[in-house]
Amino acid sequence: MSSGMIRGLGELHRWNIPNAVSRMVLITDGLTHKDADRCRQLARDAAAAGISIITLGVGSDWDESLLNDISQLSGGPPAQRIQSPEDAVEFFNQQVKNNIATVVHNTVLTLRSPAGITFRKAVKALPNIQNIDPAALSEYPVVIPLGNWQQDTVNYVLLELMVNPSSAGHSRIIQADLAYDIPVAGTFDAHLREDINIDYTAGPNQGTQINAPVRNPVTTISKDANPGVICNQCGYRNRPGAKFCKQDGQPLVPGSSIPIQARPIQARPVQSGSSLRQTPIQARPVQSGSSPQAQPTIRARPVTTNSHTSGQQAVYDEGLQLLKDKNHSGAIAYFKLAQSQGDNSYTALYYLGYAYRQYGESLKESDQSLFKQNTTMAAEYFEEALKVKQDASEAAFQLGLCYRDLELSAQAINAFRKALVLAPKDEAIYHQLGLIALERHAYREAEAFLTDGLKLDPDHALMLMALGQVYSETKQLPAAINMLRQATQLDPNIWRAWYYLGQAHMKLKEWKMALSALERARQLNVSEVDIYIAMATTYLKLHEKHKTRQMLDEALKYDPVNADALRLQRQL
Prior knowledge:
Elements: H1 2-14, E1 22-28, H2 36-48, E2 51-57, H3 64-74, E3 80-81, H4 85-100, E4 102-112, E5 117-126, E6 130-131, H5 134-137, E7 142-150, E8 156-163, E9 169-182, E10 187-200, H6 212-219, H7 310-324, H8 328-340, H9 346-362, H10 368-388, H11 393-405, H12 409-422, H13 427-439, H14 443-456, H15 461-473, H16 477-490, H17 495-507, H18 511-524, H19 529-541, H20 545-558, H21 563-571
C-alpha cells in the first residue's frame, strides 16, 4: 500500500499549484505487506506538505484502525467504508463541493507554555471529533496542523493539561498562535495570538471547578434559541405547542428542557468477560433490492470493567452540562476525554451515542456525509451500551432510530422489537415500527402496530396520521379521512396531516374539501412543492386554469425542474 501512496503523493507534488487545496483519496482494504509503519510515516509527510489524506475502506476485512491512523496523521477525516461504486461517486462529489468551499488555507496552531505545564491530550472538537497525534504534544512548541477550513465552518481544539501547583495569583499558561492564509483575499502568513490564563487560589474552596475561560472552547458553539419543547426520549426540539415529538412520536411535556433521561445518572459497572464480534459497520443507505441477510451489523468496541474516578466524574459532569445545553459536539469531546481515562460504563456509552446522534441530526440538511458518519458512531455506542446492559430499552430505542436514519430497515426493526419486549407499554415504539412497515408497504403490519399503539394513547396525533396514511394507501378512504380529521383536531399545526387529508379527498373526487385541507397545509408550510402540485391538480379538475397556473408557478419557484409540475404545465 505504501508504494501506491508514494505514487499518489508524487502526482500531487508534480502538479502542485500554489494556494490550491491538496487532498489525496486512498481507496483500499488497508491490508499491507508489512509496511503499515511506512504508510503512517507517509501520512505524516503528507501533513507536513499540506496534503490531507481521505481514506475509504472496501471489503469485509478492511483495516479500519490503520486507515484511521493514516487519515488522522495527515489531518484528514475519519476513515469511511464504501459499499458500492455509487457510494464512491457520491463521496467524490461531496469532496469536490468541500474543496470549492475552502477559504482558509495552511492553518497551523502553535502552543507555547512555561515550565510546569504538560500537554496530556488534544482533540479536534469541530467539525470532526479527532485525536491529535500524541507525538506532537511532546515537542516544544506544540505545533498542531489544522489544515484547510471551509467557509462558514467552526473549528475547535480541546486541550487536556497537567498544571503544576503554584502560588496564588493570575498566570498565563499557554500562548496560542494561529497562522493561516486566505489566498482569495491576498492574505498570507497571517497570525492571531491569544493568551490562555488561569487564576491560582490559596485553597480549594476559593475557586470554581470550571471557570468560563477554560470552558469557552466548547461552550461558545452556537446554541439553538428555539423555545420549542424538547423530547425527553430522543432530545429533538419540537415547535412550540407540539404535543408529540416529530422525531419519535413520544408525548411531550411542556417546559421540558433536559434532552434525555431525567432520572439521576449513576455509573453502572461494565460486566467483564463479554465477547464482542468485530464486524464492520454499514454506514451507507441500503440499496434497493438488497436482502436483510447481506447487511452487516454494527461493530461494538471492547469494553472493560471500571467505575468513575473523581477526575473522570468532573469531565463527565461537564459533558452532561454541555449535552443539556444542546452543545453536542462539545459534549462528545468531554465524553471522549472521560472514555480515554477508562470510563466505559453503560451511562457514558449511552450518552456518547446520544450526543453523536444529535450532532449528526444537526448536520442532516447541510452535510450528508458527516450526518452519516456521526449517526454511524452513535449506533456503535448504543450497540456497545447494550452489550453492557442488555435490558436497556432506551438504548435499544435509540439504536433503532439510528438504523432508521441510516435506512437499514431490517436492523431498525430488530432494535425496535427488542425495545418493545423491554418496554411493551411505550407507544413511541409502536409508532416507529408502524412507520417502518408503512415505508415498506407492509400495510397490514403497519395497521397492527399503529392500532396497538393507539390503544395505549388514543390521542396520539402522529399515530392517527400514520394510520390515516395506511387506510388511504389501502383504499379505505372513509376510514382514512376519519383518522386524519382526528389528527388535525388534536394538533392543527401538523401540515402533513392536512396534506394527507387533502389527498384522501382527492381520491374520492371531493375537490372542494380537498382544496380546503390543502390550503391549511399550505398556510403551515409555504415552501412544500407537493402541496402546490396537489392544489394545481385539484384546480385543474375544477377547470380553474388560472389558479392552476398560479399553483404551478409557486411549485416551480421552489423546484424549477419538478417533473410533476412541468407535466401539468404542458397539459395547460
